[in-house]
Design goal:
The chain is α/β, with parallel strands linked by helices and 369 residues long. The protein has helices at residues 26-37, 56-65, 98-101, 122-126, 145-150, 164-173, 203-216, 228-234, 243-252, 264-270, 280-288, 305-313, 320-332, 340-349, 357-368; strands at residues 15-19, 42-46, 85-88, 109-111, 136-139, 158-160, 183-187, 193-194, 197-198, 221-224, 257-259, 273-276, 292-295, 315-317. The strands form three sheets. The chain has a six-stranded parallel β-sheet with strand order 2-1-3-4-5-6, with helices on one face. The longest helix is centred in the middle third of the chain and has 14 residues, at 203-216.
Length: 369
């Protein structure tokens, strides 16, 4: 039997997004909305861990994002219908169940990344086996062409669309005034360990400085937005509390501290200053143009070349004293204008088209249809 037998040619212009972790889909949601605006139908389906069934709560959350595709696979593990593209959320084989591991370029397999490429992890960014099977790989920057080519990926699979989140952020930023009151957004990352070496995350040190500052700057609002994987770790039941975890819980009890309930772009546009250790939020915060401090240690791993350029245009804080002094400055003398140089550096590293990434990708689909 040929691979096409039994495949119904239905909704061939549609785009499917396979989800394995609802906490990490901001990038895909932005792209999906842009595709819909470009008149491309999008649906969502569960592509979770092997032998894992999504909870009813997960399915309800997924239903709020967009229409769900319930019959992606037939009873023999073949596609039940054709699609213009099928996006997977993760490039890692172990995070998708068996049917999703069979997808290939012939099926319209596509990948758009988690965010912009700020970390220096070339193996994950460019060398995952999935990329060799993709029909479409959407790039947030033209500088990604060279490392993908070095990894053996042909140009015909690569398309610079720009970052969906960055496009939406810049579009919304133009309609929002600079905050008039001091609002500090803290965005700690989760990577305490980086392949056996210290990672990008500095939260176990920085949390004490944010707690101290929030206690001493009661008229400043502090918004805490941990990376979803860190937040999951911090909220895990039955976990023994370390001193940093206790400090984190004490921080959230203060009257001028809020645990974020907003979307990513909403938090960034509400902030008069941003404190983060990475990774993609460094670029997003810089694009807003408000004061940005990048938390690093003396032994922190390097960022990508684009990441280092953006960090150099912002302010780097390494010691406890530097972090506390920076927060104090932002609390007492909030910026009254956006930093245009910082914004320009980001957009030179991650340039955008005059139309959304979704529209750019829809044009590519029109060309091949």
């Amino acid at each position: 039997m040929s691979r096409d037998e039994g495949v119904r040619d239905v909704e061939s212009s549609g785009v499917v997004f396979g989800v394995h972790d609802l906490a990490l889909i901001d990038h895909q949601v932005a792209l999906s909305h842009q595709l819909r605006a470009a008149k491309r139908a999008t649906t969502w389906t569960w592509a979770g861990f092997d032998a894992t069934t999504p909870s009813s709560g997960d399915l309800k959350r997924l239903a709020k994002i967009g229409p769900q595709e319930e019959f992606l696979w037939d009873g023999e593990g073949r596609l039940g219908q054709r699609f213009a593209a099928i996006f997977v959320q993760t490039p890692y084989e172990e995070q998708r169940h068996g049917d999703w591991r069979r997808l290939s370029a012939d099926d319209g397999l596509a990948y758009s990344g988690y965010g912009v490429t700020i970390s220096s992890w070339r193996e994950g960014h460019y060398y995952a086996p999935l990329y060799l099977r993709c029909r479409y790989i959407l790039l947030s920057t033209p500088s990604d062409f060279a490392p993908f080519r070095a990894a053996g990926i042909e140009d015909r699979r690569l398309l610079h669309t720009g970052s969906p989140i960055l496009f939406d952020l810049v579009s919304r930023r133009r309609t929002v005034a600079v905050p008039t009151d001091p609002v500090l957004l803290w965005m700690p990352h989760w990577t305490e360990d980086w392949f056996g070496s210290p990672g990008y995350s500095t939260w176990t040190e920085t949390v004490f400085d944010v707690l101290h500052s929030a206690e001493n700057e009661p008229t400043t609002t502090f918004i805490v937005r941990p990376h979803p994987l860190l937040r999951r770790q911090l909220e895990a039941p039955g976990r023994a509390e370390s001193p940093p975890q206790l400090a984190y819980r004490n921080l959230l009890t203060l009257p001028n501290v809020e645990l974020s309930t907003n979307d990513l772009i909403g938090d960034l546009l509400a902030a008069s200053a941003v404190l983060t250790d990475g990774v993609s939020p460094i670029a997003y915060a810089a694009a807003v143009g408000m004061p940005l401090a990048v938390c690093r240690r003396f032994d922190s791993p390097p960022f990508s070349p684009n990441g280092e350029r953006i960090a150099a245009a912002a302010e780097t804080v390494v010691t406890s004293g530097q972090r506390r002094n920076w927060i104090k400055r932002q609390a007492n003398s909030p910026a009254r204008a956006r930093n245009e140089h910082l914004q320009q550096v980001v957009l030179s590293c991650f340039p955008l088209h005059d139309r959304s990434p979704g529209e750019v990708f829809a044009e590519r689909l029109d060309e091949v249809s």
